[in-house]
Structure formats: C-alpha cells, structure tokens
Amino acid sequence: MRIILVGFGVVGQNLVKLLLSRADDIYARYGMKPRIVATLDSRGAVICPSGLNLHRLLEVKRLYGTVAAYDRYEGQGEYTDSKQTMEVSNNRIEEIVRSVDAEVLVEATPTNLNDGEPGLSNVITAIKHGKNIITVNKGPLALAMPSLLELAEYNGVILRFSGTVGGGTPILEFAKHCLKGDRILSFKGILNGTTNYILSMMEEKGLTFDEALNDARIKGYAEADPSLDIDGLDAAAKLAIMANWIMDLKVTIRDVRCKGIRDVNLNDILEAKRHGKVIKLIASCDESRSLSVEPMLIDKGEPLCVNGTLNAVTFKSEYSGELTIIGKGAGGMETASAILRDLIEVREAMSIV
Ligand code: HSE
Fold first, then answer.
1. Angle between the 209-218 and 193-205 helix axes, to the nearest 10 degrees?
2. Are residues 226 and 253 in the same domain?
3. Residues 112, 47: one domain?
4. Per-residue model confidence (pLDDT) at position 82
5. What's the gap in Å between 226 CA and the centre of ligand 1?
6. pTM reported for the whole predicted model
7. For residue 225, what pLDDT is reported?
8. Which atom of ligand 1 is closest in space to residue 164's alpha carbon?
9. What's the rounded Cα separation, in Å, for the pair 3 and 156?
10. CATH at residue 52
11. I need a labelling partner for 281 at 20 to 30 A (CA). Which of 108, 303, 312, 346 fits?
C-alpha cells in the first residue's frame, strides 16, 4: 500500500516509527506492506516511487528539520535508495497528488479551526484525484465534514479519521461498530486531554490555572495554540465530528455552543471538592441533538470522572443502557496507532497489498 504522508511533525514521525517497528507483524497479520512514497513538511517534500527509506527519513528530519534534505544525507554510505526530491509549497501538493501513484493520502498537518487550511485543501485535492484519505487533522472535518463525506462518496474514495477523536482510543469505532443494531440516544464526555490535565492538577495539587497550563505546555499536551484547548474549541471540533459520524447529523463546529475553562478558578474547584464533586469540561450531544461544550460539576463516582490527560465518553443507548469508553486522548504514538487502524481498514476495503 502506497502512502503520501502530508505533515511530518510529531504524529507523522511517530507513524513512521510505528511502521518500522511493526512492519513484519503488519504483513503477517494483515498482508499489508505500507510504503511511504512521498512526504511533505512545511519546508519541502521528498518523493520516491519505490518507497522512502524510513530510517533515513527520520534521521534527515532530526538533523536538518525538513524532509526536503533527504538527498543531502547519505549517512555513512548506508543509504543507497533511489531518490527524487523537490521543494514544494502547499499549493504544489496538487502536483504531487496528481503525479505520484498512491492508494492513500495521510493528512497530518496542524489543526486550524479558523479556515481549516492547509488541511482542507489537501483533503479536497486528494479526494478529487481519487486518493483515499486518512486525516488526523480536525480542522477540515470540524468545518466541513458533511460536504467532505459527500465529496468522498461521490468520488468513490474512503475517508477515515479515527485519530481526530480520542487519540488512540477508538471512540468513533466503538460507537459506530460495537453498537450496531442499537441506537445511541445521546452521549457526553471529556474530549480534551489538556483541559482535563489542567483541571486535575488544580484539584489534586492545588496549582493555579496558569501554573497548570504551563505544566501542560511543558509536557507537550496542549495544541500549538493552547487557546484551542482552553476555550473549548478542540473539544467542540471533536464533538462536531462525533455528531456527524455517530448521530448522522450534518453539523460543523459552528453548531456547538461552546464555553471553555478560562473562568474556572481554584476556589471553584476546591468548593466542588468539598461537596464530593469535580469540575470537568464536558462535551455533550443530548437527546434533542443539541451540542454543547462547557465546564460542569460531576460526581466523583461517575465513570466519566477520569483524571490527567484521559478522555472518557458515556454513550446512552436504547437497549444496552449507558456505556463508557476511557483512554488516552492525545499523544503522538497513540494518534499514529489510530492512523494504522485506518490504514488496515482501507486495505481491507480495497484488498490490495
Ligand atoms: N490538544 C489536544 C488534547 C490533543 O489535549 O486533547 C489531542 O487532540
């Protein structure tokens, strides 16, 4: 299976590490040989139709900060793979998508919730050129999921996005596949690891909001622009994706009533604690299909009450009652594992090696 990987940041690099460490197993269990035939970062691109050397790709990125330096780096004479590199800007992605044979484009550029770019154009370009898409970028889906799903269907390509919600935790698959035949009436959950970490640190260690945020940034949990986390927009984006996929709604992030945690202070948290409660940033889709993200008081004993960077979602279903799925909601390797799940699904749908 040939892959064009767009975006070579933390998630893109972890995907490469995962493919390296699991290559034999992936082939033995799924009969799949993933090859990255082109990759792009913000400074350039490298193309190799027979498959890039993944060790070399990681080393080049580490040493030079861009994959465009691929052919400059020979290691100690150990790399003899054929190469063909080119400098590209985002508007030349179309050239690569059109000219490079590949079954899948993996979109892993940073999330932009204002206009979705460059991810939105990348996804549309790939669909129009008949490439299946796996995106971990929330921007395009948060802003245009109904039309992207329609466009993908019209062009006969598969669009998958497991890593956009829950990191490596299969929240979307759980709701979509494990509850087949049942009907989800509503759901609510913690969809943002950074804010959950901040609220947990305030409650457990008595940190102020700013101290906890700083800690979350140092540990690398927050978005490049942490206001996306704090103001609830990241959770709202994930909620919109879930509402489209699980509840068949046709909504965007603009349909979500959203309030973040900026106004939550240590006193509020300690007061809640005295009453056996905690404050959590809860994203919910209620039975009337109304979508909201806001800080809420919940009982300490509720299954939803998870701490640190964990995410948790409780689904209320017609026949099985309430079910809660909990797992790590962020992280480079966790999100890369979601891409691998999607790759296997695309492979199964296409029956190619
Ligand atoms: N900043 C996000 C979070 C990353 O904290 O949940 C994963 O989407």
1. 130
2. yes
3. yes
4. 58
5. 9
6. 0.94
7. 86
8. 8
9. 18
10. 3.40.50.720
11. 108
User: What per-residue confidence (pLDDT) applies to 350?
Assistant: 85
Q: How far apart are CA 165 and CA 3, in angstroms?
A: 22
Q: How many domains does the chain have?
A: 2
Centre of ligand 1 from the C-alpha of residue 186, in Å? 23
Which is nearest to 111 in space by CA: 155, 168, 163?
163
State whether 9 and 113 are in the same domain: yes
Average of per-residue pLDDT across 57-65? 96
Tokens of 35: 């090859």
Average model confidence (pLDDT) for the chain?
93
- Beta strand 84-86 pairing with 44-47: antiparallel
The answer on 316 and 182 residing in a single domain is yes
- pLDDT tens readout for residues 81-97: 655 665 555 457 889 99
> Ligand 1 mean position to 24 CA, how many Å?
31
Q: Residue 320 belongs to what domain range?
A: 171-328
